[in-house]
Amino acid sequence: MPRDTGFPRADAESDFLRARRAQVLSRLAAWLRREPDDVNIMLPFEEVTAALGVLGERRLGLQVIPLDSIVGSVDRNRDFDRRFRPTSARVRQRWERLAMAQRRGESIPPIDVYRVGELHFVRDGHHRVSVAHALGLSTIDAYVTAVRTKLSATGIRYRGDLIVKDYRRVFLERVPLTGEARAAIVVADPWDYAELGEAVEAWGFRLMQDEGRFLDRATVASRWYTEEFVPVVRMIRQADLLGDRTEAEAYLWVIRERYRLIRTHRWDDAVLNELRHRRPR
Questions:
Q1: What is the DSSP letter of 77?
Q2: Contact (CB, 8 A) for 19 and 136
Q3: Do 182 and 152 touch, CB atoms closer than 8 A?
Q4: Contact criterion met (CB below 8 Å) for 93 and 107
Q5: Strand 139-149 vs strand 111-116: parallel, antiparallel, or unpaired?
Q6: Is the CATH number of domain 8-149 3.90.1530.10?
Q7: What CA–CA distance (Å, rounded) separates 175 from 200?
Q8: What distance in Å separates the CA atoms of residue 89 and residue 165, rounded to the nearest whole number?
Q9: Backbone Cα Rg of the chain
Q10: How would you classify the pairing of strands 70-73 and 43-44?
Q11: How buried is residue 214: exposed, middle or buried, by Cβ count under 10 Å (0-12/13-18/19+)?
Q12: Do residues 156 and 162 touch, judged by C-beta distance below 8 A?
Protein backbone atom coordinates (compact mmCIF):
# COMPACT_ATOMS: atom_id res chain seq x y z
CA MET A 1 0.00 0.00 0.00
CA PRO A 2 1.23 3.55 -0.75
CA ARG A 3 2.56 5.65 2.10
CA ASP A 4 0.07 6.33 4.92
CA THR A 5 0.36 9.82 6.45
CA GLY A 6 -2.35 9.19 9.05
CA PHE A 7 -4.76 11.52 7.27
CA PRO A 8 -7.06 9.22 5.23
CA ARG A 9 -8.72 12.03 3.25
CA ALA A 10 -5.41 13.57 2.17
CA ASP A 11 -4.00 10.12 1.38
CA ALA A 12 -7.08 9.25 -0.71
CA GLU A 13 -6.75 12.50 -2.65
CA SER A 14 -3.09 11.72 -3.27
CA ASP A 15 -4.00 8.19 -4.36
CA PHE A 16 -6.43 9.51 -6.95
CA LEU A 17 -4.03 12.11 -8.35
CA ARG A 18 -1.29 9.49 -8.61
CA ALA A 19 -3.62 7.09 -10.45
CA ARG A 20 -4.71 9.83 -12.87
CA ARG A 21 -1.09 10.82 -13.52
CA ALA A 22 -0.18 7.19 -14.24
CA GLN A 23 -3.06 6.92 -16.70
CA VAL A 24 -2.01 10.05 -18.59
CA LEU A 25 1.63 8.94 -18.73
CA SER A 26 0.61 5.49 -19.95
CA ARG A 27 -1.49 6.97 -22.74
CA LEU A 28 1.39 9.25 -23.75
CA ALA A 29 3.85 6.34 -23.74
CA ALA A 30 1.53 4.28 -25.95
CA TRP A 31 1.25 7.18 -28.40
CA LEU A 32 5.03 7.64 -28.52
CA ARG A 33 5.53 3.91 -29.16
CA ARG A 34 2.87 4.03 -31.90
CA GLU A 35 0.97 1.23 -30.20
CA PRO A 36 -2.57 0.30 -31.37
CA ASP A 37 -5.40 2.47 -30.09
CA ASP A 38 -6.89 -0.44 -28.15
CA VAL A 39 -3.78 -1.12 -26.04
CA ASN A 40 -5.19 0.74 -23.02
CA ILE A 41 -8.88 0.03 -23.57
CA MET A 42 -10.81 -2.49 -21.49
CA LEU A 43 -11.87 -5.63 -23.32
CA PRO A 44 -15.65 -5.53 -23.93
CA PHE A 45 -17.27 -8.65 -22.48
CA GLU A 46 -19.94 -8.91 -25.19
CA GLU A 47 -17.38 -8.74 -28.00
CA VAL A 48 -15.19 -11.35 -26.34
CA THR A 49 -18.02 -13.83 -25.80
CA ALA A 50 -19.40 -13.20 -29.30
CA ALA A 51 -15.98 -13.98 -30.80
CA LEU A 52 -15.54 -17.13 -28.70
CA GLY A 53 -19.13 -18.40 -28.82
CA VAL A 54 -21.08 -18.91 -25.59
CA LEU A 55 -22.08 -22.42 -24.48
CA GLY A 56 -23.43 -21.61 -21.01
CA GLU A 57 -22.62 -20.15 -17.62
CA ARG A 58 -22.44 -21.25 -13.99
CA ARG A 59 -22.26 -19.29 -10.74
CA LEU A 60 -19.20 -20.20 -8.66
CA GLY A 61 -19.89 -17.96 -5.67
CA LEU A 62 -17.42 -15.89 -3.67
CA GLN A 63 -13.75 -16.30 -4.59
CA VAL A 64 -10.45 -14.44 -4.28
CA ILE A 65 -9.20 -13.53 -7.76
CA PRO A 66 -5.98 -11.86 -9.00
CA LEU A 67 -6.44 -8.20 -9.84
CA ASP A 68 -4.29 -8.59 -12.95
CA SER A 69 -6.78 -11.12 -14.35
CA ILE A 70 -9.48 -8.43 -14.56
CA VAL A 71 -9.16 -7.14 -18.12
CA GLY A 72 -12.58 -5.90 -19.13
CA SER A 73 -16.08 -4.76 -18.37
CA VAL A 74 -19.64 -5.79 -19.11
CA ASP A 75 -20.96 -2.25 -19.59
CA ARG A 76 -18.24 -0.72 -21.83
CA ASN A 77 -17.08 1.50 -19.00
CA ARG A 78 -15.08 4.49 -20.26
CA ASP A 79 -14.22 5.95 -16.84
CA PHE A 80 -11.21 3.64 -16.47
CA ASP A 81 -8.47 2.31 -18.74
CA ARG A 82 -7.29 -1.29 -19.12
CA ARG A 83 -5.45 -1.10 -15.76
CA PHE A 84 -8.53 0.50 -14.16
CA ARG A 85 -6.84 3.88 -13.79
CA PRO A 86 -9.31 6.81 -13.90
CA THR A 87 -9.51 8.43 -17.33
CA SER A 88 -11.02 11.69 -16.01
CA ALA A 89 -11.92 13.53 -12.81
CA ARG A 90 -15.58 12.52 -13.18
CA VAL A 91 -15.21 9.54 -10.83
CA ARG A 92 -13.08 11.37 -8.27
CA GLN A 93 -15.62 11.86 -5.46
CA ARG A 94 -16.79 8.26 -5.32
CA TRP A 95 -13.26 6.96 -5.92
CA GLU A 96 -11.82 8.91 -2.98
CA ARG A 97 -14.64 7.77 -0.67
CA LEU A 98 -13.76 4.17 -1.41
CA ALA A 99 -10.04 4.83 -1.01
CA MET A 100 -10.65 6.41 2.41
CA ALA A 101 -12.77 3.46 3.49
CA GLN A 102 -10.10 1.02 2.30
CA ARG A 103 -7.35 2.90 4.17
CA ARG A 104 -9.45 2.95 7.35
CA GLY A 105 -9.83 -0.82 7.15
CA GLU A 106 -13.58 -0.69 6.59
CA SER A 107 -15.36 -3.64 5.01
CA ILE A 108 -15.59 -3.32 1.22
CA PRO A 109 -18.25 -5.41 -0.59
CA PRO A 110 -16.98 -8.01 -3.09
CA ILE A 111 -17.15 -7.10 -6.74
CA ASP A 112 -19.16 -9.12 -9.28
CA VAL A 113 -17.42 -10.59 -12.34
CA TYR A 114 -17.78 -12.95 -15.28
CA ARG A 115 -14.94 -15.41 -15.84
CA VAL A 116 -13.98 -16.42 -19.40
CA GLY A 117 -11.05 -18.79 -19.32
CA GLU A 118 -8.60 -17.09 -16.96
CA LEU A 119 -9.93 -13.60 -17.75
CA HIS A 120 -12.40 -11.63 -15.61
CA PHE A 121 -14.89 -8.95 -16.66
CA VAL A 122 -16.47 -6.59 -14.14
CA ARG A 123 -20.25 -6.56 -13.83
CA ASP A 124 -20.24 -4.40 -10.71
CA GLY A 125 -17.32 -2.82 -8.85
CA HIS A 126 -15.19 -0.82 -11.31
CA HIS A 127 -14.31 1.80 -8.68
CA ARG A 128 -13.37 -0.89 -6.15
CA VAL A 129 -11.02 -2.53 -8.67
CA SER A 130 -9.46 0.84 -9.49
CA VAL A 131 -8.84 1.66 -5.82
CA ALA A 132 -7.40 -1.81 -5.16
CA HIS A 133 -4.92 -1.33 -8.02
CA ALA A 134 -3.96 2.14 -6.76
CA LEU A 135 -3.34 0.81 -3.25
CA GLY A 136 -1.03 -1.91 -4.54
CA LEU A 137 -3.25 -4.90 -3.76
CA SER A 138 -2.80 -8.10 -5.75
CA THR A 139 -6.14 -9.81 -5.15
CA ILE A 140 -9.77 -8.90 -4.57
CA ASP A 141 -12.91 -10.68 -3.37
CA ALA A 142 -15.42 -11.34 -6.13
CA TYR A 143 -18.66 -13.16 -6.85
CA VAL A 144 -17.74 -15.17 -9.95
CA THR A 145 -19.91 -16.46 -12.79
CA ALA A 146 -17.98 -18.75 -15.15
CA VAL A 147 -18.87 -18.56 -18.84
CA ARG A 148 -18.17 -21.60 -21.02
CA THR A 149 -17.19 -20.82 -24.61
CA LYS A 150 -16.64 -22.76 -27.83
CA LEU A 151 -13.10 -21.41 -28.21
CA SER A 152 -10.46 -20.87 -25.55
CA ALA A 153 -9.76 -17.31 -24.42
CA THR A 154 -6.03 -18.05 -24.51
CA GLY A 155 -4.10 -15.47 -26.51
CA ILE A 156 -6.57 -12.61 -26.07
CA ARG A 157 -4.81 -9.44 -24.96
CA TYR A 158 -6.39 -6.63 -26.96
CA ARG A 159 -9.59 -6.05 -28.92
CA GLY A 160 -7.70 -6.70 -32.15
CA ASP A 161 -7.15 -10.30 -31.04
CA LEU A 162 -10.91 -10.87 -31.13
CA ILE A 163 -10.95 -10.71 -34.93
CA VAL A 164 -8.78 -13.82 -35.19
CA LYS A 165 -10.90 -15.63 -32.59
CA ASP A 166 -14.11 -14.70 -34.37
CA TYR A 167 -12.91 -15.94 -37.76
CA ARG A 168 -11.57 -19.14 -36.20
CA ARG A 169 -14.93 -19.79 -34.51
CA VAL A 170 -16.75 -19.37 -37.84
CA PHE A 171 -14.18 -21.59 -39.57
CA LEU A 172 -14.71 -24.37 -37.02
CA GLU A 173 -18.47 -24.10 -37.48
CA ARG A 174 -17.97 -24.61 -41.22
CA VAL A 175 -15.22 -27.21 -40.73
CA PRO A 176 -16.01 -28.96 -37.41
CA LEU A 177 -12.63 -30.50 -36.68
CA THR A 178 -11.98 -32.15 -33.33
CA GLY A 179 -9.05 -33.13 -31.14
CA GLU A 180 -5.60 -33.09 -32.74
CA ALA A 181 -6.96 -31.93 -36.08
CA ARG A 182 -8.68 -28.92 -34.49
CA ALA A 183 -5.49 -27.91 -32.66
CA ALA A 184 -3.34 -28.30 -35.79
CA ILE A 185 -5.15 -25.68 -37.87
CA VAL A 186 -3.75 -22.31 -36.78
CA VAL A 187 -3.20 -19.15 -38.85
CA ALA A 188 -2.24 -15.62 -37.84
CA ASP A 189 -4.22 -13.68 -40.45
CA PRO A 190 -7.98 -13.92 -39.71
CA TRP A 191 -8.80 -13.77 -43.43
CA ASP A 192 -6.88 -17.02 -43.90
CA TYR A 193 -9.53 -18.82 -41.86
CA ALA A 194 -12.20 -17.65 -44.30
CA GLU A 195 -10.13 -18.74 -47.31
CA LEU A 196 -9.28 -22.06 -45.72
CA GLY A 197 -12.95 -22.71 -44.96
CA GLU A 198 -13.82 -22.14 -48.62
CA ALA A 199 -10.99 -24.46 -49.70
CA VAL A 200 -12.22 -27.27 -47.44
CA GLU A 201 -15.80 -26.88 -48.64
CA ALA A 202 -14.64 -26.97 -52.27
CA TRP A 203 -12.59 -30.09 -51.53
CA GLY A 204 -15.64 -31.68 -49.91
CA PHE A 205 -17.81 -30.83 -52.92
CA ARG A 206 -15.35 -32.53 -55.28
CA LEU A 207 -15.23 -35.54 -52.94
CA MET A 208 -19.03 -35.87 -52.98
CA GLN A 209 -19.06 -35.62 -56.77
CA ASP A 210 -16.45 -38.38 -57.02
CA GLU A 211 -18.31 -40.69 -54.61
CA GLY A 212 -21.80 -39.77 -55.75
CA ARG A 213 -23.21 -39.30 -52.26
CA PHE A 214 -23.86 -36.58 -49.69
CA LEU A 215 -21.40 -36.13 -46.80
CA ASP A 216 -22.12 -33.98 -43.76
CA ARG A 217 -19.73 -31.26 -42.56
CA ALA A 218 -18.19 -33.36 -39.80
CA THR A 219 -17.37 -36.17 -42.23
CA VAL A 220 -15.92 -33.77 -44.81
CA ALA A 221 -13.81 -32.08 -42.14
CA SER A 222 -12.43 -35.38 -40.84
CA ARG A 223 -11.66 -36.77 -44.29
CA TRP A 224 -10.14 -33.48 -45.50
CA TYR A 225 -7.75 -33.50 -42.57
CA THR A 226 -6.65 -37.12 -42.94
CA GLU A 227 -6.81 -37.49 -46.73
CA GLU A 228 -5.73 -34.01 -47.85
CA PHE A 229 -4.17 -31.85 -45.17
CA VAL A 230 -1.88 -34.39 -43.46
CA PRO A 231 -0.47 -35.88 -46.71
CA VAL A 232 0.01 -32.43 -48.28
CA VAL A 233 1.78 -31.08 -45.20
CA ARG A 234 4.04 -34.14 -45.28
CA MET A 235 4.92 -33.35 -48.90
CA ILE A 236 5.46 -29.69 -48.03
CA ARG A 237 7.96 -30.66 -45.35
CA GLN A 238 9.74 -33.13 -47.63
CA ALA A 239 9.96 -30.45 -50.33
CA ASP A 240 11.27 -27.92 -47.78
CA LEU A 241 8.41 -25.53 -48.53
CA LEU A 242 7.22 -24.87 -44.97
CA GLY A 243 9.37 -21.82 -44.27
CA ASP A 244 8.50 -19.94 -41.10
CA ARG A 245 4.74 -20.40 -41.48
CA THR A 246 2.38 -22.67 -39.63
CA GLU A 247 1.38 -25.87 -41.39
CA ALA A 248 -2.04 -24.41 -42.21
CA GLU A 249 -0.49 -21.24 -43.65
CA ALA A 250 1.93 -23.28 -45.75
CA TYR A 251 -0.93 -25.48 -46.97
CA LEU A 252 -2.89 -22.40 -48.05
CA TRP A 253 0.14 -21.00 -49.86
CA VAL A 254 0.80 -24.13 -51.88
CA ILE A 255 -2.81 -24.69 -52.92
CA ARG A 256 -3.01 -21.05 -54.05
CA GLU A 257 0.21 -21.36 -56.05
CA ARG A 258 -0.68 -24.80 -57.41
CA TYR A 259 -3.90 -23.56 -58.92
CA ARG A 260 -2.47 -20.21 -60.08
CA LEU A 261 0.45 -21.87 -61.86
CA ILE A 262 -1.00 -25.12 -63.12
CA ARG A 263 -4.80 -24.73 -62.81
CA THR A 264 -5.18 -28.11 -61.15
CA HIS A 265 -6.34 -29.63 -57.90
CA ARG A 266 -4.11 -32.68 -58.20
CA TRP A 267 -0.88 -33.40 -56.34
CA ASP A 268 2.15 -35.01 -58.01
CA ASP A 269 5.92 -34.56 -58.43
CA ALA A 270 5.49 -32.09 -61.28
CA VAL A 271 3.40 -29.80 -59.12
CA LEU A 272 5.85 -29.95 -56.24
CA ASN A 273 8.83 -29.34 -58.50
CA GLU A 274 7.15 -26.21 -59.84
CA LEU A 275 6.36 -24.98 -56.33
CA ARG A 276 9.93 -25.50 -55.10
CA HIS A 277 10.93 -22.54 -57.24
CA ARG A 278 8.35 -20.33 -55.53
CA ARG A 279 9.11 -20.74 -51.85
CA PRO A 280 7.01 -19.00 -49.16
CA ARG A 281 8.00 -15.47 -48.24
A1: -
A2: no
A3: no
A4: no
A5: parallel
A6: yes
A7: 7
A8: 35
A9: 25
A10: parallel
A11: exposed
A12: yes
Q: How do the domains of the chain map onto residue ranges? A: 8-149, 175-276
**Three-state SS at 229:** helix
Query: If DSSP codes are grouped into helix, strand and coil, which group holds residue 62?
Result: strand
CB-based burial of residue 183 (10 Å sphere; 0-12 exposed, 13-18 middle, 19+ buried)? Answer: exposed
Q: Measured between alpha carbons, how far is residue 130 from residues 12, 158, 263 in Å?
A: 12, 19, 59
Rounded-to-integer distance, Cα 146 and Cα 49, Å: 12
Per-residue pLDDT 10s for the chain (281 aa) are: 566 666 666 777 777 778 777 766 666 665 555 555 555 678 899 999 999 999 999 999 999 999 999 999 998 777 888 888 888 888 889 989 998 888 888 888 999 999 999 999 999 999 999 999 888 899 999 999 999 999 999 888 878 788 889 999 999 999 999 999 999 999 989 899 999 999 999 999 999 999 999 999 999 999 999 999 999 999 888 888 788 899 999 999 888 877 665 554 555 565 666 666 655 44
Question: Which residue(s) pair with 121 in the sheet?
Answer: 72, 114
The amino acid that residue 97 corresponds to is R
pTM for the structure as a whole: 0.72
Q: Which residues contact 234 (CB under 8 A, 6 or more apart)?
A: none
